[in-house]
Design goal:
This protein is α/β, with parallel strands linked by helices. It folds into four domains: 35-70 and 305-429 and 466-503, Glucose-6-phosphate isomerase like protein, domain 1 (Rossmann fold), CATH 3.40.50.10490; 107-289, 3-Layer(aba) Sandwich (Rossmann fold); 432-463, no CATH class; 507-546. Helices cover 48% and strands 11% of the residues. The chain is built from 22 helices and 15 strands. Strands 1-2-15-14-10-13 form a six-stranded mixed beta sheet, sandwiched between helices. It has a five-stranded parallel beta sheet with strand order 6-5-7-8-9, with helices on both faces. A two-stranded antiparallel sheet has the order 3-4. Helix 11 links the parallel strand 8 (238-242) and strand 9. Helix 7 (157-165) runs antiparallel to helix 15. The structure holds 6-O-phosphono-beta-D-fructofuranose. Residues 152-155, 205-207, 210, 213, 267-268, 353, 505, 508 line the site of 6-O-phosphono-beta-D-fructofuranose (F6P).
Length: 547
């Protein structure tokens, strides 16, 4: 296999990138009044305006050629068909089966997985109903009011951030608390304010081996017993989600309280599986199902829409354009919607854990970047802190702006102000402000000539900074499902082009192994320290402070 950067299509893009150096998007907008209409597409309730990007028709065509040369469509079809695309772990990658409403079977090793998927959805539905209706009560007979969802990584970020994003849909009377960090402050803070008789613990761990989640669950169990619950009451207050049912039972979970998932669901793609149980408990099963339906609609769009109208394809290719042909090292996500404030952190795991790899194909070390640092936070807060670097700093940071055209129960003045900030930022990034414009602003002032020139230089905004703007009507469950799925497939497109395995995470695994080795030395204080001198010194400091 030859690496993508050896391809003709890559070389064409390199020369096209050189060709637009020195040109300005402002001039492109001036020269072509139809630019916005030309570079806008809509799908599954999401309107994407990508006209404020450093592209023209020739560049787009070359990007589509690159995708074709790397067989993105064939790789996509292989994933949807249940082929072993995660070759280092010998697994199919089928989060798409979890939201497959086509009625068609999905085969893994010749076996249709859909009956199990549908049975688990029914189990979630029944359980959510029993909690919300008061049929399932705590051991003293009280209705469940609090859910403590324990998990980490994909077993935490998806449920937490989707629940947060769908606040207007929360079921009355239920409050969900999420705990991920093994730092005891977190779980202690959460449990301190709860009554164990109306609390349900949902422990989510695909592997059922993750240190943080096991420890936090043990702490929650001890708290439950210390508060007066007994061993036999645990079944009413603890449920688990895992693909490792055996380990969950050994841990003490009641077998009936275990919601299954499968090894063909990657952790960061798992919110569509029973890992989404806390979401369903928060917003009700019907809304949860609509979240899945939105993702299914985007799956269909990704499979069927031609490249020039295909949202994940366009976003993925634009990402490659900036990462590999403009040396952009980061990508910022800017949701202008308070409830979507966690979304950058969600995409951060999705993107960086998927494509942060250095080997393509079976064993070819790559010599090109495979993904930017993903970061961001809600607008307008960022405007008063880090936007400065995006506007005038010397690093190129492409941005994704997101904005709901309608919001639930919000007063118009705030919403219009939020919109004006969002749209105004995309405009400022694109057009900037020239030295002449800045100088002209100062002409009536009583500053001397030298000061005017100096100030105008400092105030000059280069512009030409790329951004996408995504608008949607209201952030309802369906639209959110489509939005999340759009980013999943964007990441897929990029992984397919770079030739990496987007579905393993060996770097994370090494951290887990070394962390456990260090823990052994912290617990056994007599054990000889035989790591590198820095790690030994850190362990010694901990031992000394915890004698
Ligand atoms: O952070 C690495 C990771 O493997 C993620 O991919 C996963 O979502 C997380 O750990 C938690 O794993 P588990 O669900 O097995 O506890």
């Amino acid at each position: 296999m030859s690496l993508v950067n050896q391809s003709e299509q890559w070389k064409t893009l390199e020369s096209l990138a050189g060709g637009i150096a020195g040109q300005h998007m402002r001039d492109w907008f001036d020269a072509d009044q139809s630019r916005a209409a030309k570079y806008s597409v809509e799908g599954c309730g999401i309107k994407l305006d990508y006209s404020k990007n450093l592209i023209n028709q020739e560049i787009l065509t070359a990007l589509f050629d690159l995708a074709q040369s790397q067989q993105v469509a064939q790789k996509r079809d292989a994933m949807f068909a249940g082929e072993i695309v995660n070759h280092t772990e010998k697994r199919a990658v089928l989060h798409t089966a979890l939201r497959n409403f086509s009625g068609e079977p999905v085969l893994v090793d010749g076996k249709d997985v859909m009956p199990e998927v549908l049975a688990t959805q029914d189990k979630i539905k029944d359980f959510v109903h029993s909690i919300h209706s008061g049929e399932h009560v705590g051991y003293t007979g009280k209705a469940i009011k609090h859910i403590v969802a324990i998990g980490i990584g994909g077993s935490f970020l998806g449920p937490k951030i989707m629940s947060e994003a769908l606040k207007p849909y929360w079921h009355k009377g239920i409050t969900v608390h999420y705990v991920a960090n093994v730092d005891g402050c977190h779980i202690q803070d959460v449990l301190a304010n709860l009554d164990h008789t109306d609390t349900l613990i949902v422990m989510s761990s695909k592997s059922f081996t993750t240190q943080e989640t096991l420890q936090n669950t043990l702490t929650a169990k001890q708290w439950f017993l210390d508060q007066g619950g007994s061993q036999s009451d645990i079944a009413k207050h603890f449920v688990a989600v895992s693909s490792n049912v055996k380990a969950a039972v050994e841990f003490g979970m009641d077998e009936n309280n275990i919601f299954p998932m499968w090894d063909w669901v990657g952790g960061r793609y798992s919110l569509w599986s029973a890992i989404g149980l806390p979401i369903a408990l928060t917003i009700g099963y019907q809304n949860y199902r609509e979240l899945l339906e939105g993702a299914y609609a985007m799956d269909c769009h990704f499979k069927e829409a031609p490249p020039e109208q295909n949202l994940p394809m366009l976003l993925g290719l634009l990402g490659v354009w900036y990462t590999n042909f403009h040396a952009a090292q980061s990508h910022v996500l800017l949701p202008y919607y308070h409830y979507l404030r966690g979304f950058p952190a969600y995409v951060q795991q999705l993107d960086m854990e998927s494509n942060g790899k250095g080997v393509a194909g079976l064993n070819e070390e790559v010599d090109y970047a495979t993904g930017p640092v993903i970061w961001g936070s809600e607008g307008t807060n960022g405007q008063h802190s880090f936007h400065q670097l995006i506007h005038q700093g010397k690093v190129l940071i492409p941005a994704d702006f997101m904005f709901p055209l309608n919001v639930h129960n919000q007063e118009d003045t705030h919403h219009a102000m939020l919109a004006s900030n969002c749209f105004g930022q995309t405009q400022a990034l694109m057009q900037g402000k020239t030295y002449q414009e800045c100088y002209a602003d100062l002409e009536g002032s009583n500053l001397d000539e030298e000061t005017r020139k100096s100030l105008a230089t400092h105030k000059t905004m280069p512009g030409n900074k790329p951004s996408n703007t995504m608008l949607f009507d209201q952030l309802d469950p369906k639209t959110l499902g489509a939005l999340v799925c759009m980013y999943e497939h964007k990441v897929f497109v990029q992984g397919a082009i770079w030739g990496v395995n987007s579905f393993d995470q060996w770097g994370v695994e090494l951290g887990k192994v070394l962390g456990n080795q260090v823990l052994d030395k912290l617990v056994d204080t007599d054990a000889q320290l035989d790591f590198d001198s820095s790690t030994n010194q850190l362990i010694a400091a901990f031992r000394a402070a915890n004698k």
